[in-house]
Amino acid sequence: MNGAPPTGVDVDLMSPDVAATHAVYTSLLGRGSTNGAFGFGNALLRFHGDGAAGHRVSFGVDNLADAQRLTKRRGLDPDEPVGVTDRIDLPLWPDADIPRLDHLVFTAPTRDHALALFGATLDLDFRLDRHIGGDTRQLFFRAADLVVEVVVGADPAHGPTCRLWGLAWSAPDIAVTHDRLTSVGMAISEIRIGQKPGTRLFTVRDRALATRTVVIGPT
Question: Across the beta sheet with 82-86, what order do the strands follow?
Answer without folding.
Answer: 38-40, 43-49, 9-15, 56-61, 82-86
